[in-house]
């Protein structure tokens, strides 16, 4: 059976629990589902987070990543939902879920997808702190995370 | 005979707008109409360009009427 | 802030989406939550799965594992819910969720917890196929998975 | 003066019950009252024992009144 790929760019808040429940229900033959949820940290400092996207590249880039993940691990399905726009602390940013017959494949696929989303997806990020917006530069750690796979 | 320049991320702050209309023509001539400090940033080594949604490395591109050239600073990740 | 540990042995079906939503809501300061959900594979062959536990050892063993995970990675919280009893295809068996400031820690903690739950937790498993119950022997793969961490 | 033997997993199938009452006394004497094929399985190298919920490796244990001795075959994992 062909693996199912579901990739979305969300321009409004989404509910990770609902997404994950639907994804799990769609893959009853999978023994395991690994998910990663990234959310805006409620650290008392960041008041808002904005992710800008560029329509011609952002979603197509996520779709290409999804196809690469499916080609690399034996999955039953892969879900990637990524927010763009302005988010409040505690709001979800990204949800990745991988369903597989074997646990190891699901873990590696979700981990790989996150490392690549973090380091090379077409988003520009700024944070509002003390009423001022600050652009976030790429982090060296993100490049190092991605390099684990090469 | 207008083209558009689109600025992502912090380049939009520097440009004072997310996009501007410019006269069509060679990129070099278009950039010469902008503030020199902005032009220098746009030509930065780490800035990539997309012509009508496709990545291009051609700094000698000639913008025709209706073309959109986007300037993409380094991504900060999802 | 001390990390929160929540370890449960479920003797009746549980809802992973509800569990995960509550866990995520309890950790707004965490940047990321990694979860693993294991469910009875709906493969058309296995009609039911039974996990026997031994009360004096099973839950205490899971709690000891939870403490070991917290001691090894920088987590904000760890959740382990494990079913015992008889399950139908598609029903959840185990949910592990790790909340952490850094994604890497959450992935490693959930992965480690699953490898150890699979290889050394106090459960005895049998499957019903064609109306007959069959005990499941330990899998070599499970020992190999666990050995990755030593 | 009864003790209990508890059988987990496939040992319960072999014993025909999840637990049985036995006369208290040394383990060796208790096992001698069971079918030889079950006794051999219970003494298998990979079978662990728990006395009143605590793992023990003492095959010379003496069961007192009210004691529970559980026989635990290799776990099959969660």
Report what the structure shows.
The complex is a heterotetramer, with 2 copies of chain A (150 residues) and 2 copies of chain B (78 residues). Helix content of chain A is 34%, strand content 35%. By secondary structure, chain A is of the alpha+beta class. Chain A has a single domain (4-147), classed as Molybdopterin biosynthesis MoaE subunit (Aldehyde Oxidoreductase, domain 3). In chain A, helix 2 runs antiparallel to helix 3 and helix 3 (103-120) packs antiparallel against helix 4. The relative contact order of chain A is 0.23. Chain B is of the alpha+beta class. Chain B has one domain (3-57). Helix content of chain B is 23%, strand content 35%. Chain B has helices at 10-15, 27-31, 36-42; strands spanning 2-7, 19-23, 25-26, 48-51, 54-56, 62-63, 68-72. The relative contact order of chain B is 0.29. The model of chain B has no long low-confidence stretch (mean pLDDT 95). The A-B interface holds A 38, 51-52, 54-57, 82, 93-94, 117-126, 135-139, 142 and B 6, 8-10, 13, 50, 52-55, 70, 72-78.
Distance between the termini of chain A: 29 Å
Binned strand content of chain A: 35-45%
Overall geometry of chain B comes to globular
Helix content of chain B: 10-25%
Most extensive interface: A-C, 33 and 33 residues
Which stretches of chain A of 5+ consecutive residues score pLDDT under 50? none
**SS class of chain B:** alpha+beta
Number of spatially distinct domains of chain A: 1
Q: How many separate domains of chain B? A: 1
Let me know the number of strands of chain B.
Answer: 7
Defining key terms:
heterotetramer; A: about 150 residues; Aldehyde Oxidoreductase, domain 3; four-stranded antiparallel beta sheet; about 35% helix; B: about 80 residues; alpha+beta; five-stranded mixed beta sheet; two-stranded antiparallel sheet; about 25% helix
How do the strands and helices of this protein lay out in sequence?
The complex is a heterotetramer, with two copies of chain A (150 residues) and two copies of chain B (78 residues).
Chain A: E1 4-10, H1 16-25, E2 32-39, E3 46-53, H2 58-72, E4 77-83, E5 85-87, E6 92-100, H3 103-120, E7 123-129, E8 132-135, H4 140-147
Parallel strand pairs in A: 1-4
Antiparallel strand pairs in A: 2-6, 3-5, 3-7, 4-6, 7-8
Helix pairs in contact in A: 2-3, 3-4
Chain B: E1 2-7, H1 10-15, E2 19-23, E3 25-26, H2 27-31, H3 36-42, E4 48-51, E5 54-56, E6 62-63, E7 68-72
Parallel strand pairs in B: 1-7
Antiparallel strand pairs in B: 1-2, 3-6, 4-5, 4-7
């Amino acid at each position: 059976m062909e693996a199912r790929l579901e990739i979305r760019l969300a321009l409004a808040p989404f509910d990770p629990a609902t997404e994950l429940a639907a994804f799990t229900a769609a893959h009853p033959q999978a023994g395991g589902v690994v998910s990663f949820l990234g959310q805006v940290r409620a650290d008392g400092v960041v008041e808002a987070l904005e992710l800008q996207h560029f329509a011609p590249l952002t979603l197509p880039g996520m779709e290409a990543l999804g196809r690469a993940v499916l080609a690399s691990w034996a999955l039953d399905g892969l879900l990637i939902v990524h927010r763009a726009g302005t988010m409040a602390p505690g709001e979800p940013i990204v949800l990745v879920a991988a369903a597989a017959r074997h646990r190891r494949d699901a873990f590696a696929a979700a981990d790989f997808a996150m490392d690549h989303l973090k380091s090379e997806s077409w988003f520009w990020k700024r944070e509002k702190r003390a009423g001022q917006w600050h652009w976030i530069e790429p982090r060296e750690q993100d490049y190092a995370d991605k390099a684990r796979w090469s | 005979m207008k083209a558009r320049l689109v600025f992502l991320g912090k380049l939009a702050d520097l440009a004072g707008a997310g996009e501007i209309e410019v006269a069509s023509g060679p990129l070099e001539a278009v950039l010469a109409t902008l503030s020199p400090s902005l032009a220098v940033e746009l030509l930065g080594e780490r800035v990539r360009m997309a012509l009508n949604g496709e990545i291009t490395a051609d700094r000698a591109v000639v913008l025709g009427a209706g073309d959109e050239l986007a300037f993409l600073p380094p991504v900060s990740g999802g």
